[in-house]
Amino acid sequence: ENKGIDPKKVERIFRRINEMSAAEMRTELKEINRSTHGSTKELRYRLREFYRKEYALLGQWRDETRTKMRNRKRFRYLVAIDIEATCEAETNNVNFPHEMIELPAVLIDCSTFTIIDKFRTYVRPEINPKLSDFCTQLTHISQADVDAAPPFPDAWTMLMKWMAGYGMMDDNQEAEFAIVTDGPHDVHHFLQRSFLQYNMKIPHEFRHFINVKRIFENQGKEWRLAKGDGRTSISKMCEKLGIEMEGTAHEGLTDATNVAKIACALVVDKKIPLFINQRLVRVRGRPLCLPGPATEADL
Q1: Cα 238 from Cα 241, distance rounded (Å)
Q2: What pLDDT does residue 216 have?
Q3: Where in the chain is the domain with CATH 1.10.720.30?
Q4: Active site includes 98?
Q5: Could you read off the pLDDT of 265-286 as tens digits, one per residue?
Q6: CB 181 within 8 A of CB 211
Q7: pLDDT at 129 exceeding the cut of 80
Q8: What is the CATH number of domain 7-71?
Q9: Which end of the chain has less neighbouring CB within 10 Å, N or C?
Q10: pTM for this prediction
Q11: Which of 232, 209, 200 is nearest to 75 (CA)?
Q12: pLDDT band at 71 (very low <50, low <70, confident <90, very high)
């Protein structure tokens, strides 16, 4: 909190400055240790310049306070995820049945915006149980990793137990939380398909999420991420925020950790509030929900 700013006085001066007499302005200037000499025009200019800076500081202070209150009041935790799935070298095959092979999560404490815990389990695919060479090279997940891993329903139960240890996803639901992703695909494509494959219902809390990439790019032109250069959006956001990336791209837990670091940096360093900005939207005639903008009901 900036104790040097009296919000009410700053606003009062700005409302009345064009109506103030020379005597009133001299009184105000004397209080802030500024020269009281000169014409009415000079006095008004001097007073306005001082309080213009104070007004800017007031706006900054309010933005910081609003950011902290919005995040801390709404969420106790943020859970960053970045799912890895089976894949093949032929990227144009839209019918390839991607299956989850790594389910990671990184927990952020919203009272401090620091990472406090991590979870990871590999997941055994069933439609294509043998990983392609391309998939192994891309994700650094070995055939032995997935052969020894549980199928998705059991992996999901493990994640739920881990979250329940922090008061999330249990019967009492003591802790409010939000899912954080880099784009919509982790929820829309990989997670949703896993639930459909096993005829399971995706929890409501995972149908609405914070897409940090969208929040990042919505800050202005200079925040837009270049496309087609072979680099991941996570690496580009880390670079722009001055964050040292951990590990290698397309490693699920590593990517989830970097997404969590991006989320923390946006709030702590850039004073940019995080909020649920995407959700899964049902489309008639389609088995998969599509990613759409969040509504007031989601916030």
Answers
A1: 5
A2: 93
A3: 7-71
A4: no
A5: 999 999 998 989 999 988 777 7
A6: yes
A7: yes
A8: 1.10.720.30
A9: N
A10: 0.74
A11: 209
A12: very low
For 17, what's the count of Cα atoms within 13 Å in the CB-facing half-sphere? 20
Query: What are the start and end residues of each CATH 3.30.420.10 domain in the chain?
Result: 75-298
Q: What is the DSSP string of 122-155?
A: E---SSS-SPPHHHHHHH---HHHHHTSPPHHHH
Active-site pick, 28, 84, 99, 102? 84
Grade residue 225 by pLDDT with cuts at 50, 70 and 90: confident
CB 77 within 8 A of CB 109: yes
Q: Which residue has the tokens 């910081």?
A: 64
Q: Three-state DSSP class for 259? A: helix
Catalytic status, residue 84: yes
| Beta carbons of 77 and 107 less than 8 angstroms apart | yes
pLDDT at 33 over 90: no
Does the domain made of 75-298 have the CATH classification 3.40.50.2300?
A: no
DSSP E strand stretches across 46-148:
77-81, 84-85, 100-109, 114-122
Q: Which residue has the tokens 């699920």?
A: 252
3-state DSSP helix/strand/coil % of the chain, to nearest 5? 45, 15, 40
- Cβ-contact 214, 275 below 8 angstroms: no
Q: What angle do CA 264, 67, 53 make, to 5 degrees?
A: 115
Angle, CA 279 vertex, CA 276 and CA 285 arms, to 5°: 170
**Are 84 and 106 a contacting pair, CB within 8 Å?**
no
Radius of gyration of the chain (CA): 25
Residue 170 pLDDT greater than 90, yes or no: no
Sign of CA dihedral 7, 9, 14, 15: positive
Question: Among 54, 188, 250, 251, which one carries the catalytic annotation?
Answer: 250
